[in-house]
Design goal:
The chain contains two helices and eleven strands, in the order H-H-E-E-E-E-E-E-E-E-E-E-E. It is α+β, with helices and mostly antiparallel strands and 188 residues long. Helix 1 packs antiparallel against helix 2.
Length: 188
């Protein structure tokens, strides 16, 4: 959208430039019109050449969302494998390991919602490489849900995942209802 706004501004500037150089007949000279048109065409080609037009999809953009398909008792320190992939642009999330790998340096947003079976507990955290960054503890009574949202600055190759810690090990989900979900995307 910003590119389209810039193009509109360029057209306005060129029209005003032509208006300021009117000849006696009230129009731009043929040479000036040609020069302005060539400048506009050159700018459009530069924009098109950047690959940032409105229909371009950036190959390094990354986004994913995956859910858990069944209730599970996690092992101590187990990474949660959200195995039902909803979206996996650029395939940077691996459902067989539960690990997201940053394709390039940048700022990323991650979120996770988990649910516990009735009367059970769960302690999980979002980890960056080997460091716990934020935690989720849904509670103990009934079915409980916990959610976290965080923004991380990552380097290419950094690993992000949801991992069990502490005493709570019960996570609830169903194949038809995505109660426990892990998502993330590249902001910039």
């Amino acid at each position: 959208m910003r590119i389209m706004n810039a193009v509109c501004c360029i057209v306005v500037v060129l029209v005003l430039s032509c208006h300021g150089h009117k000849t006696v007949s009230g129009t731009c000279s043929q040479n000036l019109e040609n020069a302005l048109f060539e400048d506009l065409l050159s700018m459009m080609m530069k924009i098109k050449g950047t690959g940032k037009g409105t229909d371009h999809q950036d190959e390094t953009f990354s986004a994913f969302s995956a859910s858990l398909t069944a209730t599970k008792t996690l092992g101590a320190g187990e990474i949660v494998k959200f195995n039902k992939v909803i979206t996996n642009v650029n395939n940077d999330y691996d459902p067989s390991t539960g690990i997201y790998t940053a394709p390039k340096p940048g700022v990323f947003q991650f979120s996770c919602t988990v649910m516990t079976p009735s009367g059970k507990t769960l302690h999980v955290g979002l980890w960056k490489n080997d460091t716990k960054t934020v935690t989720i503890y849904p509670g103990q009574t009934g079915y409980n849900m916990g959610t976290q949202n965080t923004i991380l600055e990552l380097k290419k190759g950094d690993k992000v995942y949801i991992k069990q810690f502490g005493s709570g090990k019960e996570i609830f989900s169903l194949s038809v209802d995505s109660y426990s979900v892990f998502s993330g995307y590249l902001i910039r």
